[in-house]
């Protein structure tokens, strides 16, 4: 088990991660998702057999870090929210900002493989889902890379946390220690995603509060082999 620690309204909550899942092709409009799948197929990314998708990845890839080492220059993040089941009660389900750092070279060989090749970076602060559930679609999701805005939208563009909680129940994974990342929103293709830093903000316009994750991307030395 790999513990994460969250500041939840001034209280520290520790969560040993048992199960880590990455949602994919998880837009609210599945017609838009189908168009996106077709675009990716033209780039060589294998099409899924169904949407939305759910990719299990190693629990140790759930991290709260300011530094992500990578093996080459073609890796990038994705603005997402993360659902964290911290305990057995409804109020123990948490929501925070997250960034799924993905190996884009490996992605053309298999999306699941690419998810396993990089970490899921989560914020250190979180909200209780019950406290924002009534306005979930108005929450904002924003990503900046190297100081430039590359993603901006609302959670109304993605399948909801409640949808994924129901899916987790069907899979018998709605238990303490499960972490699920939401899938992402469209990127501005005019901005270079292969930057040396990523920041994701999850904002609540009703309160002005923002939870964030931010890290530098550091390319490791070439292998000696």
From TrEMBL:
Pfam (any one): DUF2848
One GO MF term: catalytic activity
Protein name in the entry: 2-keto-4-pentenoate hydratase/2-oxohepta-3-ene-1,7-dioic acid hydratase in catechol pathway
Classification lineage: Bacteria, Bacillati, Actinomycetota, Actinomycetes, Pseudonocardiales
């Amino acid at each position: 088990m790999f513990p994460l620690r969250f500041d939840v309204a001034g209280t520290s909550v520790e969560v040993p991660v048992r199960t880590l899942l990455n949602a994919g092709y998880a837009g609210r409009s599945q017609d838009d998702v189908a168009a996106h799948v077709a675009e990716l197929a033209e780039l060589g990314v294998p099409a899924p057999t169904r949407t939305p998708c759910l990719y299990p990845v190693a629990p140790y890839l759930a991290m709260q870090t300011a530094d992500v080492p990578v093996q080459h220059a073609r890796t990038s993040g994705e603005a997402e929210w993360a659902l964290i089941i911290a305990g057995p009660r409804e109020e123990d389900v948490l929501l925070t900002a997250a960034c799924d750092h993905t190996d884009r070279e490996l992605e053309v060989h298999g999306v699941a493989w690419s998810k396993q090749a990089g970490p899921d970076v989560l914020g250190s602060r979180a909200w209780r889902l019950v406290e924002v559930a009534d306005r979930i679609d108005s929450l904002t999701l924003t990503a900046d890379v190297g100081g430039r805005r590359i993603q901006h939208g609302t959670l109304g563009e993605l399948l909801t946390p409640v949808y994924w909680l129901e899916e987790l129940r069907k899979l018998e994974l709605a238990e303490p220690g499960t972490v699920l990342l939401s899938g992402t929103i469209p990127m501005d293709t005019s901005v270079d995603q292969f930057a040396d830093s990523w920041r994701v903000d999850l904002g609540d316009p009703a309160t002005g509060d923002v939870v964030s994750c931010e890290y530098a991307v550091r390319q490791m030395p070439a292998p000696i082999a």
